[in-house]
Design a protein that fits this description.
The complex is a heterodimer of chains A (about 260) and B (about 425). Chain A is α/β, with parallel strands linked by helices and about 260 residues long. Chain A is built from 10 helices and 10 strands. Chain A has 2 domains: about 170 residues, Rossmann fold, CATH 3.40.50; about 80 residues, no CATH class. In chain A, a hairpin with a 2-residue loop joins β1 and β2. In chain A, α3 crosses α5. The model of chain A has no long low-confidence stretch (mean pLDDT about 90). Chain B is an all-alpha fold and about 425 residues long. Helices cover about 70% and strands about 0% of the residues of chain B. The N terminus and C terminus of chain B are likely disordered. In chain B, α7 packs parallel to α9. The chains are: A alpha/beta (about 260), B mainly alpha (about 425). The complex binds adenosine-5'-diphosphate and magnesium ion (MG). The site of adenosine-5'-diphosphate has 11 residues of chain A, from β2 and α1.
């Protein structure tokens, strides 16, 4: 693999006495789809929070290389908005849309860090500002269309059905122009058909936008069929990584998932 | 529960619905109200019933008061629960427009009606001081206009960005004192200090905002309240600079190319200045609200973490709101000082912040029309109810509670912006 876009190096996170992440290592290559799996409470969401700036890791390095050309930035401790500006966008396990804004406005917020009209632009409403605004509206609409939500464009986010809210979050994250899209349990609460559609959507996004995707997911069928590589997290430690076949046959993974109760 | 209420109201008519106010039947309702009445009697007993005369060492028992309290609370609780039940019944249509709102949107949707009503309002506003020719009324109108500017400023902070600021009066005071002091020491005129006051408001907004904006919700409210009081106490006690509690008198009224005005002419002039300032404020706030920045404020108010994760700089965006709000307060302060020609720290107590906040909350958070309606009601109505001056605080409190319970979005709720996008038809496969 040449020049990974994300390289997580021995990242740990302590909450008081609890070690939620223990020297976790992970690498995402250019245009790869990488899955992160593990039992509930393994620390997967904490891992996302640590690499997107919502938490600061207790130790370790989070290194990114947005254009995969060897120019590496260290991003631990950077604020979430800075991380997003550098090109990592995410969705949330417990959906966090802006409930009393429309679907379109939700996606428009995603473009905030890629646009620059200032107070003066807002007040004078000059040509540049008007053009930028119209471009933002149109782009937001196209993204809604990509996730098949264009009919809900003017609907408040809180009025949109649950499964579709997850896709709206994906559209909003895409609006930030990421090089790496992080999805936290995107299929949670979806029926099998919706899950299939989602799988297709994610692969489409990768191919159409030429970006890398990392997702946390419990639906094994989906994970196995779409991922290039899989990482397995258990009690904050990466216990395995490899192709779907390697993971499916890995005894440590089977043990973690079947939950053999021998204390070590 | 909900179904029951609905059935009640439909089958048994108004009286029985009222009697069973929000309960399964009228007996439970009766019991509930009796309990509430008893509880109130118990709570208010020491202050309402017992009067101790410490000079003659006698105790007077005013038991009649207790009967009054019991009866009032009994009926009050009935009405209260009835209103709540009614609200519950129509809760499915909470977003329903009120009569005023639907009328307003009807007028605004029609091009001719819109321009006619706008020009009517414009004529009324312009002709007002001449038509009435009354110093007292003009004075009140100026106050009202000042509160509109203050309300629209605070509306940026509270209504748009969702930052509960209870010390807004501090920036108002800073504007007023800036004019008073600069006028006293350097003979600077109104028009020079007006932009300076705005600038000073913006700068102090930034300085005060920086340390407090990492706090959220209640904590932010308490700290800003503290800041407001600190500024007032500084004005009160830093006598060498601010003249202390005795204040600053003989502040110059606004000049007009060196012409001499009579008192009345000057008030009329000030009135037009305020009309001008209000128009500018409305223009600015409207443009800000419907911009990239206004959107970011709304999103930040809805969900801070998601908003940051979408690339919005929290600190910068909040500071911008805080300091833009303060800008208008600073400007309003300059006008206030020019209007009264005398200021002292007593004009800038917490009570003032509370009124401005009520204007925003009661009028409608985030709604320009709402804030205008709110300040007209809250500033003009008490003027006509001068006899009840000592109950003003109580009245404000009551209105606030009623609005919060029954119409949390305020009298006139914010209007949503409509976006126009090109619907492209390329391979729009219907989903599912
Ligand atoms: N903010 C927090 N404070 C304290 N403990 C936390 C916090 N966030 C997560 N944890 C703990 O870290 C562990 C991992 O949680 P999480 O990352 O949400 O798991 P997963 O997403 O894999 O289900 C859990 O034991 C959880 O209780
Ligand atoms: Mg999780």
């Amino acid at each position: 693999m040449n020049n990974p876009v994300l390289n997580v190096n021995a990242v740990s996170k302590d909450f008081g006495g609890i070690r939620a992440l223990d020297e976790a290592e992970l690498v995402v290559g250019d245009k790869e789809i990488v899955a992160l799996i593990g039992p509930n409470g393994a620390g997967k969401t904490t891992f996302f929070n640590c690499i997107t700036g919502i938490y600061t890791p207790t130790s370790g390095d989070v290194l990114i290389d947005p254009s995969a050309d060897g120019t590496v930035h260290r991003i631990n401790g950077k604020k979430p908005n800075v991380v997003t500006e550098l090109g990592m966008a995410r969705t949330f396990q417990n959906i966090r849309l802006f409930p009393s804004m429309t679907a379109l406005e939700n996606v428009m917020i995603g473009t905030h860090c890629r646009t620059k009209s200032s107070i003066w632009g807002a007040i004078s409403r000059n040509k540049a500002t008007r053009e930028e605004e119209q471009a933002v509206i149109q782009r937001a609409y196209e993204l809604l269309k990509l996730v098949n939500l264009e009919e809900f464009a003017d609907e408040l986010a809180s009025n949109i059905p649950y499964g579709k809210q997850r896709r709206l979050e994906i559209a909003r994250a895409l609006a930030t122009d990421p090089f790496l899209l992080l999805l936290d349990e995107p299929a949670a609460g979806m029926n099998p058909q919706e899950t299939l559609d989602l799988e297709k959507l994610i692969v489409d996004i990768r191919d159409q936008f030429n970006i890398s995707i990392m997702l946390i997911e419990h639906d094994m069928k989906m994970v196995m069929s779409m991922s290039d590589r899989i990482y397995v997290l258990d009690y904050g430690r990466m216990i395995a990584s490899g192709t779907p076949q390697e993971i499916a046959n890995n005894p440590a993974v089977i043990k973690a998932y079947l939950g053999e109760d021998d204390d070590d | 529960m909900n179904n029951q209420i609905n059935e009640n109201s439909q089958n048994q008519g108004f009286i029985s619905f009222f009697l069973s106010a929000g309960c399964a039947d009228s007996a439970t309702a009766l019991k509930k109200s009796c309990l509430v009445a008893l509880w109130f009697v118990f709570l208010t007993f020491p202050i309402m019933a017992v009067r101790v005369n410490t000079i003659e060492n006698t105790v007077t028992w005013r038991l009649m008061n207790m009967v009054n309290v019991a009866v009032a609370v009994f009926f009050g609780s009935y009405v209260w629960r009835w209103l709540l039940a009614r609200k519950e019944m129509s809760s499915a249509e909470t977003s329903k427009e009120t009569l005023i709102e639907s009328l307003l949107s009807k007028i605004l949707d029609d091009k001719i009606l819109k321009s006619v009503s706008f020009s009517l309002i414009a004529i009324m506003v312009v002709a007002f001081p001449f038509a009435l020719d009354n110093i007292y009324l003009t004075n009140i109108m100026i106050s009202c206009l000042i509160y509109i500017v203050l309300g629209l400023g605070l509306n940026i902070v509270v209504g748009l960005a969702g930052l509960l600021d209870l010390g807004f009066v501090a920036f108002y005071a800073i504007g007023a004192y800036a004019y008073a002091l600069l006028n006293m020491h350097f003979q600077l005129g109104f028009w020079t200090v007006l932009p300076l006051g705005a600038l000073l408001g913006a700068i102090t907004g930034l300085i005060l905002g920086f340390p407090v904006l990492r706090l959220r919700g209640d904590y932010l409210a308490i700290v800003t309240l503290g800041f407001g009081e600190i500024i007032r106490l500084v004005l009160q006690n830093w006598g060498t600079v601010t003249m202390g509690p005795s204040g600053i008198a003989n502040i110059a009224r606004p000049g007009f190319f060196g012409m001499d005005f009579s008192l009345q002419q000057n008030l009329i002039y000030l009135y037009y200045i305020m009309v001008f300032l209000v128009s500018i404020t409305i223009f600015f706030v409207n443009r800000l609200q419907n911009s990239r920045i206004g959107r970011a404020w709304l999103a930040l108010k809805e969900d801070e973490i998601a908003c940051q994760a979408m690339g919005v700089d929290k600190v910068k965006t909040k500071l911008l709101a805080f300091s833009l709000g303060a800008t208008w307060a600073g400007m309003a302060g300059v006008v206030f000082a020019a209007k009264t020609t005398f200021i002292n720290p007593d004009s800038f107590t917490f009570w003032e912040s509370a009124i401005i906040l009520s204007v925003v909350v009661i009028g409608g958070m985030g709604s320009i029309r709402g804030v205008i309606a709110g300040s007209i009601i809250l500033i003009l109505v008490p003027e006509y109810l001068r006899n009840f001056a000592e109950f003003r605080m109580l009245l404000f409190g009551a209105i606030m509670v009623l609005v919060m319970v029954f119409r949390p979005q305020g009298l006139i709720s914010a209007k949503r912006k409509i976006y126009h996008y090109k619907v492209s038809n390329t391979a729009s496969a219907g989903n599912e």
